[in-house]
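As described in the Methods, two query proteins were run sequentially through the folding procedure within a single session, without resetting any intermediate state between them. The first query and its resulting structure tokens are shown here.
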Amino acid sequence: MVCKEDILIEQVCDLYNQISNLDTLKPCKIVNTLFTKLVLTCMSPIPNIDVTKLATNVQEIRSKLIILCGEAEGHLESHYSTILASHNNPLNHLNIFPYYTNYLKLSLLEFNILNQHITNNVPKNVAFIGSGPLPLTSIVLATNYLPSTIFHNYDIDPLANSKASCLISSNPDLSNRMLFHTNDILNVTNDLKEFEVVYLAALVGMNNEEKNKIIDHLGKYMAHGALLMLRSAHGARAFLYPVVDTSDLRGFEVLSIFHPTDEVINSVLIARKYNPIVLLPNKCCGDEIQVFKPLNNMIEELVIEE
């Protein structure tokens, strides 16, 4: 008897074959149809599928599929950013983006998670790495939840930043609070210490090696005690986005993991940059030094039901 997991994998591989043979991944009827089918397939409620334990050929297909998804997502955002920029007030028309509702839900989820772990006041400076041509998360957070925070949006693509900047230029509030930096985040060092919160987009680092390199860089240069919000994927959704494992977060204390089960695709992890090691005299042993390292809180891993 064929199990549900095998059927799902067969469907994903079939869709990969169709997508990989397309002439373009820019928005059009066939592209939209195939990626919609792929997303719906990967939203399967099969909870136990572990993509890291799949056959080698399926692992290779998954890696290639994530790259294709990233390329298609970039084209989609660029396409709609151009359309939005043609309006006098682009931010009044964000709902024309097909996945705008998903971003609203994801942003609310991330803000609620963030709110549970903010130790001081509302963050003054937030960085979003991989903001792209349509920086919806930054826009939604800045508008609805963090109305006094300054958002520093980083993207390696100057055209993406140019398009994103056009969207908020007509808004006097956001044009003052949303800044765009064209830079590879691996070249950003001391500036990272200015941010109380850093968001890392799901498609920044398309494989484990790239993602870990970025996380290690953030762990080296972020301010002690600052929060890192990461997007990951769980179960079959890991055919669409890279997975961030808690063991990848060296230098961070993992606080919470959330796995949505509705149309929000990304899992969300939040971690805190370790404070410096505390050195105290050991009263029991004369002048010897005791080393106290921060202990990980119990990781709260929750599934958010629809």
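Immediately afterward, the second query was submitted; its sequence and tokens are:
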Amino acid sequence: MLFHNKLITWYLQNKRHLPWRETKNPYAIWLSEIILQQTRVAQGLPYFEAFLTNYPTVQDLANAHEDEVMRLWQGLGYYSRARNLHFTAKTITHELNGVFPNNYKDLLKLKGVGEYTAAAIASIAYGEIVPVVDGNVFRVLSRIYGITSDISTATTKKEFQAKAQELISHEQPATFNQAIMDFGAIQCTPKSPQCPQCPFIQDCVAYNTNQVDKLPVKLAKTKVKKRYLDFLIFVDNDQNTYIQQRTKKDIWQKLYQFPLIDRFEQNDINVQQILTEDFKNQPVKDIVQLNTDYVIHILSHQKLHIHFWMIKCEKLARNENYEIVSWNQLNKFGFPIVIHNFINSINTK
């Protein structure tokens, strides 16, 4: 039996029932693919539903305020996806008359749409014979066909792209792509794959040569930097606080935060001295360190070590670098999830 026939047969018996698979609407498919980049299906599903509820069409998303989009994205991480999502919605609405490109080549021109996402939209919405290639596909094909090339290189990606193009069903490209995604997600998993129940067990090179746990090969490792953040949570007698929007091209761009002391080296800080230098017009009643142990927050390339400090004041003075808002209004702003969770855990009174 051909690879794609065997794969699709497995898929029809085992597939996950997901809302974006019930439509050919490129907007819904695009939305789901952007959300599911770097995100598990279980985590991404509520966000997909929330975005479709708030923005049923690409025009609705284009017309939304960026702060609203960022707040709705809060907790998903990799926030450049949300910024690109909003930018591309405006591009489609205002430059493409609200119509998505109907082919892989033109979809690739959209900001935030890479090869995998373009292939998914092109095949599922328009039936184009173009395969998806991601971590699941690397894993499935490397194991079944015994491909030992290093998947961290561009050359290897082209090798897998060519192999997937050779294998894809010309009659059912959409079903094939969804099948190989699911096969990698629930059958040929990174750890403890379900080999005894695998329809490819007789042909699988990795299984028959005892290399399942060695494939795919990835030699390059991401270097993770340590970063130390101290957030200063000012609260006055009227329950007002300072916040600011992150605008630099760094982590959490366009999200909000409290005043911050930021460094890549671990060293002791003198909060009182910093307040005297940077907030000289703000009288302070009390300084309380809210957590003695670091809150650890891990990003793809950074491991954040976070302390939170409460700075109690009679009344906040105007400061050109910060916006003064009521504590009860903080839920209207998009914060990094680690700050959002801490906000909900503390008592400011």
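The longest strand covers residues 225-236. We note this only descriptively and draw no conclusion about the first query from it.
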